[in-house]
Write a structure and sequence with these properties.
Elements: H1 9-13, E1 18-23, H2 32-43, E2 47-50, H3 55-58, H4 68-79, E3 83-87, H5 95-100, H6 127-144, E4 150-154, H7 166-180, H8 183-190, H9 217-245, E5 251-252, E6 254-255, H10 264-268, E7 275-277, H11 287-301, E8 307-311, H12 330-340, E9 343-348, H13 374-393, E10 398-399, E11 403-406, H14 409-415, H15 427-440, E12 445-448, E13 459-462, H16 470-481, E14 485-488, H17 508-514, E15 516-524, E16 530-533, E17 536-539, E18 541-547, E19 552-555, E20 565-570, E21 573-576, E22 579-580, H18 582-595, E23 609-614, E24 617-622, E25 628-638, E26 644-651, E27 656-661
Parallel strand pairs: 1-2, 1-9, 2-3, 3-4, 4-5, 6-7, 7-8, 8-9, 11-12, 11-13, 13-14, 14-21
Antiparallel strand pairs: 10-23, 15-18, 16-17, 17-22, 19-20, 20-21, 23-24, 24-27, 25-26, 25-27
Helix pairs in contact: 6-9, 7-9, 11-15, 12-13, 15-18
Length: 663
């Protein structure tokens, strides 16, 4: 039962790593269920998510309740030792809801209705939708609150709905009224004197629908803030219902990886378990780095504690232009990487690959090839290995994450506006470039919000924060004055919280912090264009800066900016006015990190080998196709195989070991 003020992932895992995936048995004849649970046991599956898209099955017509099939399923899973993450089915309303209540259907920015026939066809601000969603959630929670199979609640699925319709407009106006109180304050925040946009009453305001030319960027920024908040209201309403029935059962909803529509910091604070769906491209040579980024971000949103992969692919997906399967060993490698970086649940979409519907070519743990197929055989191996690891790592934390990468959804929303200086600047790609440099330097990192307490980190890295509040700017200054080392990328501190450009083009506190007298001009670079600097070439961006009292400078060495600083340092604060090419950025960041006292988990790591320490164990992961030998001083036991290793570890193609020091 409940052991803390709010339940945690530990309450669901009970000392294990959860292993399984979405289970959609309504797609199959009921006699298939017996084979499913037999094969689940064979594969080591101990958890499945049920009911994500079952609203129309439970409530085929208004007010009906058909729970018999779900009763039988829950009982069957419990009999075979499989726990259930029970989903509220509210991400896929039944067709009758849209037919009888068209106001529950969202509209796009052109005013066109988003019809039923797919999923996520709900207007988040519709009172009718919310009322029906609450009713189905109430009855689901009441019926299964005491069921012994229930281990966790999963609310909705991948909240991702934008709505520009009348219901959203009404709610947006109310949200703005709460934020600004008066229309004069809104006009000031939005700068509506530009282009004669000044509003006389809140009733004149609509979402940023299709317009003749460019939208007001502050309006777009607030609409994105509002959308995240409106979706969060939907989540909270359902969360509170299930929590009232089962206060001892943890609650989650699954984030999409690095998705723009939710301020994940705000959402994570409202979850008992932070979970994510992660789908690296198996053809991406940096797919492992992308996975590490998502894992680090999700663990940080869980405030350093264990988190859950709610979905990944066992093979190919179906939504890329060309969908490649995972080569032999890659599924295992990426699953172990997630555990190394803090995951206590490794799950897939889905258990059995669909034969019909839009995702019939999206892989499953049990593929079309059946139990003899390579996918299922690899899943069995992963399940067995995670079962061996569970008692050693479940509930433990990742060690040595002394570097924080700052990330803020408001800054992302503001930097992506139309009318910006360069469409080549993509916030997620800039963040990924900086994280890649740290990953390739074998540096374990966390993510943090600019307003978080940063005092525990040896190094703080700011890839880019176009929008920076006064409080956040003060926080960065205080961090450096307190002895921390700060590295900032370009286009940071340009605007305040209303996306109003700061005097001088950069916050004055930051100019003083970095030793910048004047930022004369921004010089964006064309696609593929680079700019020379002493010792490297810069990409994407450059700036014409005049230094004041910087301690050291790396100058540009060609073109219009020859002699101007590309990189400045004042004390412990560094500023990069361009993005160095990957190898140069890795070398520079590794040097700065070492000066700040940051140490990799293991010395002398070969390229492509990832090392992470968690719970006193050392995970070594080979992201390459060629075997490598890794020096590991001392004597260790590999928990995956039971083998004893002395002074080195052999890693095959996509190989992994989990080392425990031998007594």
């Amino acid at each position: 039962m409940r052991t803390s003020p709010t339940p945690t992932l530990d309450d669901a895992t009970r000392g294990r790593i959860l292993f399984g995936g979405d289970y959609n048995p309504e797609q199959w004849p009921e006699e298939t269920w017996q084979e499913d649970v037999r094969l689940m046991k064979e594969a080591g599956v101990n958890s499945v998510t049920v009911g994500v898209f079952s609203w129309a099955r439970i409530e085929p017509r208004p007010g009906a309740r058909e729970f018999g099939w779900l009763d039988r399923l829950m009982d069957l899973l419990h009999e075979h030792g499989v726990g259930v993450v029970l989903a509220t089915p509210t991400s896929a309303p039944p067709p009758w809801l849209g037919r009888l209540h068209p106001e529950t259907l969202p509209r796009d920015e052109d005013g066109q209705t988003i019809w039923w026939g797919s999923r996520q066809q709900f207007a988040h601000s519709s009172e009718v939708y919310r009322r029906h969603a609450a009713a189905i959630t109430e009855d689901l929670a009441a019926r299964y609150a005491g069921h012994p199979a229930l281990t966790m609640w999963h609310i909705n699925n991948e909240y991702c709905t934008y709505d520009f319709g009348d219901e959203a407009a009404r709610a947006f106006r109310a949200w703005l009224h709460r934020r600004y109180e008066t229309v004069d304050a809104l006009n000031t925040a939005w700068g509506t004197n530009f282009w004669g946009q000044r509003y006389d009453t809140f009733d004149e305001i609509v979402p940023p629908r299709r317009v003749q030319y460019l939208h007001n960027p502050a309006q777009v920024l607030d609409f994105k803030r509002f959308t995240s908040d409106a979706l969060l209201e939907c989540y909270l309403a359902e969360r509170d219902i299930v929590r009232r029935h089962t206060p001892h059962i943890p609650v989650t909803t699954n984030f999409m990886p690095f998705w723009q529509g939710q301020d994940a910091w705000a959402w994570a604070d409202q979850e008992d378990v932070v979970s994510v769906d992660v789908y690296p491209d198996p053809r991406d040579r940096l797919g492992g780095q992308y996975g590490a980024l998502i894992h680090d971000m999700t663990r940080s949103q869980a405030r350093g504690g264990p988190w859950a992969i709610m979905e990944q692919a066992a093979g190919a997906v179906n939504w890329r232009p060309v969908n490649h399967p995972r080569p032999r060993g890659l599924n295992r490698l990426w699953s172990l990487q997630a555990v190394a970086r803090g995951a206590d649940a490794v799950c897939y979409f889905q258990w059995r690959q669909s034969r019909q519907g839009a995702e019939k070519f999206h892989s499953g743990m049990l593929s079309h090839a059946g139990p003899e197929g390579r996918t299922f055989q690899e899943v069995k191996r992963i399940g067995a290995e995670l079962a061996r690891l569970g008692e050693h790592v479940a509930g433990t934390c990742v060690e040595g994450a002394d570097v924080a990468v700052l990330l803020d959804w408001n800054a992302w929303w503001a930097s992506g506006q139309n009318g910006r200086l360069s469409a080549e600047i993509d916030y997620p790609e800039v963040v990924r470039a900086w994280h890649r440099a740290l990953w390739e330097a074998h540096t374990t990192v966390s993510f943090a919000h600019p307003g978080h307490d940063l005092s525990g980190y040896r190094l703080v890295v700011v890839p880019q924060l176009h929008l920076l509040t006064d409080a956040a700017a003060d926080n960065l200054v205080a961090y450096v004055r307190g002895g921390g080392t700060l590295v900032s990328g370009f286009l940071t501190g340009v605007a305040d919280e209303d996306d109003r450009v700061r005097p001088g083009g950069m916050d004055a506190r930051l100019r003083d912090l970095f030793g910048i007298r004047t930022l004369h001009e921004w010089w964006p670079l064309d696609a593929g264009e680079t700019v020379g600097a002493e010792g490297f070439r810069g990409t994407l961006w450059s700036e014409e800066i005049e230094a004041a009292d910087a301690d050291s400078v790396i100058p540009y060495r060609d073109g219009e900016l020859d002699g101007c600083p590309a990189v400045l340092r004042k004390g412990r604060a560094w500023y990069f006015s361009t993005l160095p090419e990957p190898e140069a950025l890795r070398i520079l960041l590794a040097r700065i990190a070492a000066q700040a006292g940051v140490r990799p988990p293991l010395d002398a790591l070969p390229d492509g080998v990832e090392a992470v320490r968690r719970g006193g164990l050392l995970f070594l992961l080979n992201h390459g196709r060629e075997p490598v030998t890794v020096p590991v001083p001392g004597s260790h036991r590999d928990l995956l195989t039971g083998a004893h290793l002395a002074e080195e570890a052999e890693l095959g193609r996509y190989g992994a070991v989990v080392l425990q020091e031998a007594p």
